[in-house]
């Protein structure tokens, strides 16, 4: 990604009814490398993003297939980050793991909550799947499906956003950060999660998948699945005005992507849950290949996309906007 010296700043001024006091909250994107909130000096930086990416997509994770030592390592890494950030276990869970069994395989989603302030019983879920395809049983050369873009990139997003919103400490709604397991086996982890919640308490689902490459819509853009099924996307577009970053509807309707990622498990329950992506999936040579390595991603694009999600979801997180319930039919 080309670096520029352009400073894009969004300044939101809240003026009291007496116009005697003013509070400024500034989010700035500087040289495509930092996003800061001036009051608390919050930064989503490329160094942290790169660290998470290269850890989760490393060969020692062995492709993160459910039931393997590799996915256990990935889960422990995510749990460790959740603990550092200060997230709490979800509902009645005593740890960050939501354990269950599927086809005699012990599985677990990894969940952490950042409790809201005035609307703590209303949840916004930020999710990605941390599993992938494991290791080829035979062959020569590289046999590991590292799944850097699919979907270590999304997990990097939830970790960076969890740290960002925890430091910002202004979320009126509770945010549930979830790394789903067994997405590649048929959305197994998210389906299990959906069976155990009151969907009416979930006001939005922000799912991240394949967010590490430049999309066909061009630089500083992302696309959203199921755009016309709720007004979620229009809220994001409104919040991104003036930032230089744009959100588009899914350019691949024939692929039916809205129902192929974990957002679908919540959407079927009525939750306005959609997936952010950037990858040109129709021509991506690394999708579900052993070549999906960290080195094939653009860390700048990945970081910039995460920042855009942070800005774009602001009014949903703070309780100002509530997306319409999703239309499935």
Terminal CA distance? 39 Å
The residue fraction in helices comes out at 25-40%
How would you spell out the order of helices and strands? EEEHHEEEHEHEEHEHEHH
* Poorly predicted segments: 1-39
The CATH H-level superfamily is: Zn peptidases
Characterization of this structure:
This protein has 329 residues and is an alpha/beta fold. The chain has a single domain (44-317), classed as Aminopeptidase, CATH 3.40.630. The protein is 27% helix and 23% strand. It has helices spanning 46-56, 69-85, 148-168, 188-195, 232-240, 263-267, 299-312, 314-317; strands at residues 7-15, 22-30, 34-37, 97-102, 105-114, 119-129, 173-180, 202-208, 221-224, 246-249, 273-277. The strands form two sheets. Strands 4-5-7-6-8-11-9-10 form an eight-stranded mixed beta sheet, with helices on both faces. Helix 1 crosses helix 3 (148-168) and helix 3 packs across helix 7. The protein is globular and about 55 Å long. It starts with 6 loop residues before the first strand and ends in a 12-residue tail after the last helix. 49% of the residues are buried.
Topology, element by element:
Layout: E1 7-15, E2 22-30, E3 34-37, H1 46-56, H2 69-85, E4 97-102, E5 105-114, E6 119-129, H3 148-168, E7 173-180, H4 188-195, E8 202-208, E9 221-224, H5 232-240, E10 246-249, H6 263-267, E11 273-277, H7 299-312, H8 314-317
Parallel strand pairs: 6-7, 6-8, 8-11, 9-10
Antiparallel strand pairs: 1-2, 2-3, 4-5, 5-7, 9-11
Helix pairs in contact: 1-3, 2-3, 3-7, 5-7
């Amino acid at each position: 990604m080309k670096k520029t010296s352009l400073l894009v700043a969004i300044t939101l001024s809240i003026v009291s009814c007496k116009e005697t006091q003013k509070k400024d909250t500034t989010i700035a994107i500087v040289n495509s490398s930092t996003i800061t909130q001036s009051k608390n000096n919050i930064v989503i930086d490329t160094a942290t993003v790169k660290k998470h990416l290269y850890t989760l997509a490393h060969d020692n994770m062995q492709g993160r297939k459910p039931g393997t030592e590799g996915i256990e390592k990935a889960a422990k890494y995510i749990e460790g980050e959740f603990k550092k950030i200060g997230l709490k276990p979800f509902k009645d869970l005593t740890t960050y793991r939501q354990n269950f069994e599927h086809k005699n395989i012990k599985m677990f989603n990894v969940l952490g909550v950042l409790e809201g302030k005035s609307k703590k019983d209303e949840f916004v879920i930020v999710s990605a799947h941390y599993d992938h395809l494991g290791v080829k049983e035979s062959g020569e050369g590289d046999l590991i499906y590292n799944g850097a873009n699919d979907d270590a990139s999304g997990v990097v997003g939830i970790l960076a956003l969890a740290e960002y919103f925890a430091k910002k400490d202004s979320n009126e709604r509770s945010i549930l950060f979830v790394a789903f397991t067994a997405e590649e086996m048929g959305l197994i982890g998210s389906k299990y999660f959906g069976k155990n919640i009151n969907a009416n308490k979930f006001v939005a689902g922000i799912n991240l998948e394949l967010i590490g490459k430049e999309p066909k819509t061009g630089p500083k853009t992302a696309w959203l699945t199921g755009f016309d099924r709720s007004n979620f996307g229009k809220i994001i577009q409104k919040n991104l005005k003036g930032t230089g970053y744009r959100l588009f509807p899914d350019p691949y309707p024939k692929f039916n992507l809205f129902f192929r990622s974990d957002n679908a498990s919540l959407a079927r329950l009525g939750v306005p849950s959609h997936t952010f992506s950037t990858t040109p999936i129709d021509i991506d040579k690394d999708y579900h290949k052993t070549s999906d390595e960290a080195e094939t991603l653009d860390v700048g694009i990945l970081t910039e996309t995460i920042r855009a999600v942070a800005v774009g979801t602001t009014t949903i997180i703070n309780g100002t906007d509530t997306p319409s319930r999703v239309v499935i039919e």
